[in-house]
Amino acid sequence: RMYKRLMTCRGDINSLNVPFLALYESLIPPEEEKAKQKQLLTLLEKLVSKEWPKAQLYLYGSCANSFGVCKSDIDVCLAIEETAMDKSEIILKLADILKSDNLQNVQALTRARVPIVKLMDPVTEISCDICVNNLLAVVNTKLLRDYAQVDARLRQLAFIIKHWAKSRGVNETYQGTLSSYAYVLMCIHFLQMRRPAILPCLQEMETTYSVTVDDIKCGYFDEVEKLRDFGRHNKETIAQLVWGFFFYWAYCHDYADSVISVRTGNIISKREKDWTRRIGNDRHLICIEDPFELSHDLGRVVDKSSIKVLREEFERAADILQYDSNPCVKLFEPY
Ligand code: CTP
Ligand code: MG
Asked: Is the distance from the beta carbon of residue 292 to the nearest atom of ligand 1 less than 6 Å?
């Protein structure tokens, strides 16, 4: 009986559609911000091309995948064929080039997992991280952007989930919780699994876009303008989906055996991935398969104590949406 009560959400759940959509609208970056990002990218291109005429700069991450909220930093990837220098040397050289211009707080972080140069542009007031030859991130950025084109509910859901995660302090990979990228993959997967499905599985469809990056073949159907009415048979509202998302991660996901996989649009088993035991620091306590780098579990940052924090937060959110009298405030309350 308890289970049955939990399986269906409260009768007035749809009263949350208006506040959720208002929150979503308030988080969308204004057009000026996009223009400033372009302006900074143009400046960086000019500076980089003096030293490396053939190098290219790509935007990736939230500034390019359509899941960026306003006032985000931008992520840039320098694509360069430089055989004489290793990555750290390129990073140091890049920092030198950028220091010579009117950019502030230029720092080379050569020992990070992904080595980057950090900087702040005082003209646009935008902060930026530049990595080197991380082209898989550029390709997964396109995949996320393409999924967002298929059904508007994905972007709405992901903005709300990201906002919740930031408010509740569970979007901190260095503390063992999940990256924004992981949360967006969880949202895509959740919408692929609705019945009727709200999102297709683009990687299982005919390949219309294909690139090989670091020996990984990345291909999928990218003619997403043809899929604009894909989810029309599913009438679930944003409030129902937010509730359903938290309910799934609080009470339905099989943490012991399951891996969520956007690549297959399905759940796969940990056994199949050989993610059943701890290897080094990878514990696989919550498993989210990267769509292209198949050995990469986005949940690998999660440890014994942070999995508890995460699951308690999912339960808290599901219970607030179910029973609280003022869920919209309570849900995003700072921790
Ligand atoms: N990325 C990745 N693998 C990870 C983490 C990130 O490939 N384990 C790449 C993805 O292309 C992602 C980008 O790095 O889009 C930026 O990651 P992240 O900062 O988590 O996401 P953003 O979308 O930039 O989110 P935020 O708005 O919080 O900056
Ligand atoms: Mg980012």
From this structure: no
Residue type, 19: P
Express each pLDDT in 107-166 by its tens digit: 999 999 899 999 999 999 999 999 999 999 999 999 999 999 999 999 999 999 999 999
Inform me whether the pLDDT recorded for 318 exceeds 90: yes
Q: Looking at the CA of residue 138, tell me the nearest atom of ligand 1.
A: 11
Measured CA to CA, the distance from residue 249 to residue 130 in angstroms comes to 33
> What separation in Å is there between the alpha carbon of 261 and the centre of ligand 2?
22
Q: Which fold is adopted by the domain 31-136?
A: Beta Polymerase; domain 2 (3.30.460)
In ligand 1, the atom with minimum distance to the C-alpha of 68 is 27
- 298 touches ligand 1 (CB under 6 Å): yes
Domain edges within the chain: 2-27+150-331, 31-136
pLDDT of residue 280: 87
Q: Mean pLDDT in the chain? A: 96
Are residues 246 and 322 in contact, defined by beta-carbon separation less than 8 angstroms? Answer: no
Q: Do domains 2-27+150-331 and 31-136 have the same CATH topology?
A: no
Q: Which fold has domain 2-27+150-331?
A: Poly(a)-polymerase, middle domain (1.10.1410)
Burial of 59-75, coded b for 16+ CB within 10 Å and e otherwise, reads bbbbbbbbbbbeebebb
Q: Give residue-wise pLDDT tens across range 36-65.
A: 999 999 999 999 999 999 999 999 999 999
Sign of CA dihedral 6, 164, 308, 276: positive
